[in-house]
Every structure is written in C-alpha cells, then in structure tokens.
Amino acid sequence: YKAFRSDSSFNFFSFFFVFFIQDIVFVLQSVGIPGWGFCGWISSLSAMKSNLAVGVVMLVVSVLFTASAVMGIIMLKKVHSLYRRTGASFQKAQAELAAGVMSSPAMRNAAGAAANTAFQSE
Fold this sequence. Notes:
Elements: H1 2-6, H2 9-31, H3 41-50, H4 52-85, H5 90-103, H6 105-121
Helix pairs in contact: 2-4, 2-5, 3-4
C-alpha cells in the first residue's frame, strides 16, 4: 500500500524482497522436510505409515501450505506486473535509496564518521 501511495520504487523493491522470502518459506513448509519443523507433503506421507489420523490432518495442512505458496507466487507476479506498468525499475529504486539515505542527517553523520575513522586508521 505504501509503495502505491507514494509511488516509490524502493518501497516496491522492499516489498518484493520480503514477499519473496515469505514465498520461499511457504514452499519449504509445503514440502515438509523431516526434522525442520514443517508439516508438509514429505512429513505427512511419512506420518501416514505410523498413524493414519495424524497423517490425514498433516495432509490437510500440506494442502493448505501448498495453496498458500501458489497464491503467494501468483500475487507476486500480479504485483510485479503492476510495478512494471508504473515505469518503475531497479535503477530507480537505487536512486531513491541513495537520495533518501543522503537526505537523512543521521545517516550523513554516520557515513562521515565511518569514513573519518577509516581514513584515520590508515
């Protein structure tokens, strides 16, 4: 919402990064690698051998995690197409970040202090 409201490429880029990581977690949850704490396909099919009721409940959870992963990827593609239609780009996001960072007095002071420390240590 903030990216649309402010028409900010940097906000879109940060959204893509966070949402992409979230989609990766959804996919890992739907796969269900044993020992990782996820209740996905592999874990649910393994549980069916020992306890059918637990396996069925885990299977339902696996289906829901898979649906979440698929919906997340679809939403990511839709938002990316909206992002491209606005004329935004990665270069524009980099320029916005640089302009925003350098306009902040706290960041300028921190960057100056770091550069000064690095210069004095040599």
